[in-house]
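PROTEIN DATA CARD
Card holder: DUF2974 domain-containing protein
Chain length: 399
Origin: Gordonibacter pamelaeae
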Amino acid sequence: MNLLDYLATEFAPFDEKPFNPVDSAVLSQFCMVRAEGVVPALRERSSFLDLGTIVENLLSPARSAVRFADALRAELYPSMFTGLDPHRVKENLLALAASPRFRDMRVRDYLSLFDTDRQTQFAAMTFVHRKDFAYVGFRGTDTSFTGWRENFNMAYTAPVPAQEQAARYLQAVAPRAPKRVYVGGHSKGGNLAVYAALKAPPAVQRRIELVYSHDGPGFKAGTFAPADWAPLEGRIHRTVPQDSVVGLLMESHVPPRVVRSTAKGIDQHSVFSWEVAGDDFLYLEGLTDGAQLADAVLTEWLAQFSDEEAAVVVDAFFQAVEASGARDASDLLCGGTKALALVPEAAKNMDPGARATLLAALKPLTEIAARRLAQGVSVLWPGSRAPSQPQAAERSAGA
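Structure generated from the sequence above:
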């Protein structure tokens, strides 16, 4: 089973089966719906304007909240679904509208911010189940280069604007939310969920039942001290697929739970490929050898750069991406190795200084990988078949 199978078969209400990690993943994918003019906007959105961002959702419905069925507007479909798997996001919306478990849930407080100059892409919304609980969901990265640039910025800047906005958003919606609050997101959205929860005032932190990060990256070294995690100890649920790359990046105080995915390599980042067993994911004993190698190589490589050097390298990389002619991130990430090969080819047309910076940064990456493989580590890169797969273990979410 996957998320869509779960929505098609799980009919139990929340008072019979409590909110679970699969529910969080499902709602995290509705956060990938561009809901301007459909989901009522955050009332306090004016408090975000001092950040210099552009508020996209100025047209707000008169109602205070809507159901998932209210988003079924075919005239909006051409631009409504974002992310690297928009077709599945659309299917997820249809399934939520039909599901007896979810269809009466209300959605409100939509906020979408996009600022090319500040390299900011942020969106969030709040899902409310009666007066019982609220789920504060944060959008992952869309396909814009602005959104992906902000992701890269996280490696050398803390906080990035989206993280600041996530903290503001949670504080803004908490006073009007039911007492019990869940917070979550997928990919960058998972990072924002954890950041917002860790930065929340103690009164809000005490109301948080769980924070869900579905293959969300960690944080730049030094962003949080060990003491910062203490108030939410045991209440951060972090999941990654067995070949995870994104969810292993940077630092996290919370060890991940590994979910079995039916996809290969980077395609496992899509939660629609994650296997579901009953009312939870199907967990594995550990990551593949390939995922562990990739994490070790990237960690060692990134540690070679100061924050200033990393900023220069990231800028050079995106100059190459722009020169490649790619329209957005999907052109690169969904185009396979042939599309990615356009980037170094495009580097030939870059400014000589930027080209030299990029090539100099990439050289040690290949050297680190070659050295680790030469040391006798019998592993393969994520995306290829590892020598041995982890054994499945049907562990509960609390195991």
